[in-house]
């Protein structure tokens, strides 16, 4: 049966699933792309902070089956430090060189015939360490006498910038209320099913060295520039390939992969290709995690609850190094720093601080998780101060529907939305008043029942120019700015009329191939099976720019816009060819139902494949001046994504969606366990491209957020030793996601994208943690307990209700 072309909003089955369900997925560890590949094992530091006195690799080199062993000397001899997002005297290499700065930091690599031999030989590497005092708490790292991680730096602060927009001091001087809050967001991981994997080969060619590598990395183009800088090679000498299947990422595979450089270097010394596959303990110890943040907020509030000005002091713990793309977590939400609220004056202080923890990177919703935990807890506190219901307080401060496009004081341009309507939908779907009555009855029985609300602006199609804000405007070199939200595609048609679509993004399970097939089939009037999406990536053959990739919810707004533009170009050629076969002009025909047909006489038509065949086989039959070209590329580059201004304003994303979320929690009075009973959510992601996939993204984001809210936290002892296994790092399972869910959608299409779509993969990761925190605070309000940090598992609740402090020494 012929499938119907998938117009936006149509439910279609995922084209990715048959291969996965039948065990025919192509993950990197299943592949053997190069003959004679050796296997690597990484020797890691057991210390959080120590000077390296001596590294002896000789016993390991003599072990049977070992091809090469490299350590700090080989790294320093061949590599430059990785390029950083800003100038800071904190050099970062793929291994430690002078000191180790976190538990799990690579120090040496052993390459052998198989993993068993490599692991055995790794135990023979001898390293003499001089332990140094560690610091893991970001506030302690700020103290003048804190242990200094990088000797050439003045301290542990990598960047410290303050921005002021509007009359902040004046607003606070006139405020009826000044509401303050101190909040702490935890560090937690992405825990994808598939850990990191790399296969790399150093090639000594006649015209110079080159590197080819395979990795399950989904921001491949930024990595090419980093590798080129580290090895001192032209970017054209670096070839990075990504397999079709990736076992999840949730952001963690989009930061810098030091292991690509490390395995390429190992290959240079081994003289053979080298494979390395990360195990779960390595992943939790040393891959990456979202930034933990300490933050202080102040709101200048009028008597009626209107927030007139906001101050935010944000301190991110970026771990041992300022690993690119950090300090992005501080700036990704710069344009939407005021959230869904019309606040005209803002002051922001942004600091990134190094500590003896694993370097940080992207975690689903990065930047937004941290920001909204503080901002939305503060808004509840404002409501309490003014004697208002949290829902009413938010409505009084929302950007209004008639205000769009709305310019925030920090430079964001909100493209579309109807925040009041979305929150009204949540209130109606949850039967909010009935919930409040249920809560009153529960409290009368001495039960802990809470209702929490969070409303967030969901940025998508990131403008990478926000990274420039970490450097003062006067220090930014003219003509060397950064900006952009470009995505590329290539569409071609073969002689039989089969359309191939080469995507410029790297999916990790989101369904990019499914949506791409829908969009192109719709644009060309074809059945779905006549369009073949290709998601494997090769930087040598795929069109790209530095900003390309699938991070920050870029696919729906950017790549689908590029798909439409490329398909439109292709459609014109097919129409010309079809019209030539019909003896009419191209203006008289349309593409529909797999045919080129007359608009006025649909029964008069030729098959799409015949028109394509004419271009391939008989281009001389085309009208004079017509190009016989059946492949088209498009690069969608929205003009709204500019570099940071000289006044430090930036539109940090192209599109801004919206999420309104309500959580209902019940706390067991004996075990103190938090039971999430109900979630009511409304998402506005612009035009819905595929409802099934959108719901999948919502469900996945809710599960991810649940972990960070109630279970997951990468704990470190004061001595710098981290959690490293699932025995002490709790991830939610299906048993913890059985809450009642009411998911609804509102569509306010973006005027800036070709289909009106915005991103939808991260929203609830930003909103649910603080909705749960607001609900727990609401439940415990009669006990006088405030919630200022996450996660909120039973131990934490026990400490809160007993008046003690948590084990990390901080009141939650």
Summarize the structure.
Helices cover 27% and strands 24% of the residues.
Notable features of this structure?
812 residues, alpha+beta, eight-stranded mixed β-sheet, five-stranded mixed β-sheet, 20 helices, 29 strands, 27% helix, disordered N terminus
Helix/strand layout:
Layout: H1 17-21, E1 38-44, E2 50-56, H2 58-61, E3 66-70, H3 72-78, E4 99-100, E5 106-112, H4 115-122, E6 126-131, H5 138-141, E7 157-165, H6 168-174, E8 177-185, E9 197-205, E10 208-215, H7 220-231, E11 238-242, H8 258-270, E12 274-277, H9 280-286, E13 292-301, E14 307-319, H10 328-331, E15 345-354, H11 368-386, H12 390-397, E16 406-407, E17 413-414, H13 419-430, H14 432-444, E18 448-462, E19 487-493, E20 499-503, H15 512-524, E21 531-534, E22 537-538, H16 555-582, E23 589-592, E24 595-598, E25 605-607, H17 608-617, E26 631-636, E27 653-667, E28 674-684, H18 691-711, E29 740-745, H19 763-780, H20 794-802
Parallel strand pairs: 1-12, 10-11, 14-15, 20-21, 28-29
Antiparallel strand pairs: 1-5, 2-4, 2-6, 3-5, 7-15, 8-13, 9-10, 9-12, 11-22, 13-14, 16-17, 18-27, 19-20, 19-26, 23-24, 24-25, 27-28
Keywords: Molybdenum, Oxidoreductase
Protein name: Carbon monoxide dehydrogenase
Domain Aldehyde oxidase/xanthine dehydrogenase a/b hammerhead: 22-133
Account of the 3D structure:
The chain is of the alpha+beta class and 812 residues long. It has 20 helices and 29 strands. It has an eight-stranded mixed beta sheet, with helices on both faces. It has a five-stranded mixed beta sheet with strand order 7-15-14-13-8. A four-stranded mixed beta sheet has the order 18-27-28-29, with helices on both faces. A hairpin with a 6-residue loop joins strand 27 (653-667) and strand 28 (674-684). Helix 15 (512-524) runs parallel beside helix 16. It is globular and about 85 Å long. The N and C termini lie far apart (58 Å). This is Carbon monoxide dehydrogenase. It comes from Amycolatopsis deserti. Residues 22-133 form the Aldehyde oxidase/xanthine dehydrogenase a/b hammerhead domain. InterPro entries: Ald_Oxase/Xan_DH_a/b, Ald_Oxase/Xan_DH_a/b_sf, Ald_Oxase/xanthine_DH-like, AldOxase/xan_DH_MoCoBD1, AldOxase/xan_DH_MoCoBD2, AldOxase/xan_DH_Mopterin-bd_sf. Keywords: Molybdenum, Oxidoreductase.
């Amino acid at each position: 049966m012929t499938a119907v072309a998938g117009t936006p909003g149509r439910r279609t089955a995922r084209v990715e699933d048959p291969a996965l369900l039948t065990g025919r997925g192509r993950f990197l560890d299943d592949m053997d792309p190069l003959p004679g590949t050796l296997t690597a094992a990484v020797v890691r530091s057991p210390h959080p902070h120590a000077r390296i006195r001596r590294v002896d690799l000789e016993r390991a080199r003599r072990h049977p089956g070992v091809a090469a062993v490299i350590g700090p000397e080989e790294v320093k001899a061949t590599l430059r430090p990785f390029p950083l997002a800003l100038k800071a005297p904190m050099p970062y290499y793929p291994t430690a060189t002078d000191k180790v700065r976190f538990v799990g930091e690579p120090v040496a690599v052993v390459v052998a015939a198989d993993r068993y031999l490599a692991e055995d030989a790794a135990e023979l590497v001898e390293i003499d360490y001089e332990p140094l005092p560690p610091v893991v708490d970001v506030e302690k790292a700020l103290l003048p006498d804190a242990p200094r991680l990088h000797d050439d730096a003045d301290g542990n602060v990598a960047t410290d910038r303050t921005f002021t927009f509007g009359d902040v001091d004046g607003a606070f001087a006139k405020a009826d209320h000044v509401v303050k809050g101190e909040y702490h967001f935890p560090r937690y991981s992405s825990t994808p099913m598939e850990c990191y994997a790399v296969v790399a080969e150093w090639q000594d060619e006649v015209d110079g060295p080159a590197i080819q590598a395979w990795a399950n990395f989904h921001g491949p183009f930024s990595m090419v520039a980093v590798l080129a800088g580290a090895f001192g090679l032209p970017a054209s000498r670096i070839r990075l390939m990504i397999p079709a299947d990736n076992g999840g990422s949730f952001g963690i595979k989009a930061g810098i992969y030091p292991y690509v450089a490390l395995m390429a270097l190992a290959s240079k010394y081994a003289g053979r290709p080298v494979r390395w596959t990360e195990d779960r303990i390595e992943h939790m110890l040393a891959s990456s995690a979202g930034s933990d943040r300490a933050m202080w907020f102040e709101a200048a509030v009028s008597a009626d609850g209107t927030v007139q000005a906001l101050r935010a002091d944000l301190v991110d713990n970026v771990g041992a190094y300022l690993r690119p793309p950090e300090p992005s977590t501080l700036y990704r939400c710069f344009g939407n720093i005021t959230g869904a609220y019309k606040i005209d004056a803002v002051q922001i202080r942004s600091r990134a601080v190094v500590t003896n923890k694993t370097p940080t990177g992207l975690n689903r919703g990065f930047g937004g998780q941290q920001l909204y935990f503080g901002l939305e807890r503060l808004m509840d506190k404002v409501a309490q101060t003014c004697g208002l219901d949290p829902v009413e307080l938010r409505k009084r401060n929302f950007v209004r529907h008639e205000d769009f496009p709305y310019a925030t004081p920090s430079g964001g341009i909100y493209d579309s939305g109807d925040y009041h309507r979305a929150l009204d939908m949540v209130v109606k779907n949850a039967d909010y008043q009935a919930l409040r009555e249920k809560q009153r009855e529960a409290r009368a029985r001495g039960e802990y029942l809470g209702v929490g609300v969070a409303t967030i602006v969901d940025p998508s199609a990131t403008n990478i120019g926000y990274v420039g804000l970490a450097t003062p405007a006067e220090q930014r070199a003219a003509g060397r700015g950064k900006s952009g939200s470009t995505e590329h595609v290539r569409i071609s048609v073969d002689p039989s009329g089969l359309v191939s679509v080469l995507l410029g993004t790297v999916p990790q399970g989101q369904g990019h191939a499914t949506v791409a097939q829908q969009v192109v089939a719709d644009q060309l009037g074809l059945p779905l099976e006549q369009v073949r999406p290709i998601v494997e990536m090769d930087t040598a053959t795929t069109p790209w720019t530095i900003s390309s990739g699938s991070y920050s919810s870029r696919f729906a707004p950017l790549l689908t816009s590029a798909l439409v533009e490329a398909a439109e170009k292709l459609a014109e050629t097919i129409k010309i060819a079809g019209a030539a076969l019909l003896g009419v002009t191209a203006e008289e025909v349309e593409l529909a139902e797999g045919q080129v047909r007359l608009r006025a006489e649909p029964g008069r038509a030729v098959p799409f494949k015949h028109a394509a065949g004419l271009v391939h086989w008989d281009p001389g039959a085309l009208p004079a001046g017509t190009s016989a070209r059946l492949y088209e590329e498009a690069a969608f580059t929205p003009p709204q994504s500019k570099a940071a201004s000289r006044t430090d304003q930036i539109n940090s994303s192209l599109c801004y969606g919206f999420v309104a979320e309500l959580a209902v929690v019940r706390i067991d009075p004996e075990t103190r366990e938090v039971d999430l009973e109900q979630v009511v959510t409304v998402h506005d992601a612009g035009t819905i491209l595929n409802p099934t996939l959108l719901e999948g993204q919502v469900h996945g984001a809710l599960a991810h957020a649940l972990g960070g809210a109630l279970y997951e936290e990468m704990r470190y002892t004061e001595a710098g030793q981290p959690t490293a296994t699932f025995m002490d790092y709790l991830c939610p399972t299906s048993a913890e996601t059985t809450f009642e869910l009411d998911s609804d959608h509102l569509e306010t299409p973006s005027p800036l994208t070709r289909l009106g779509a915005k991103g939808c993969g991260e929203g609830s990761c930003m909103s649910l943690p603080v909705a749960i925190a607001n609900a727990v605070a609401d439940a415990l309000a009669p006990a006088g307990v405030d919630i200022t940090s996450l996660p909120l598992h039973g131990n934490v609740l026990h400490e809160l209700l007993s008046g003690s402090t948590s084990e990390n020494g901080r009141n939650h």
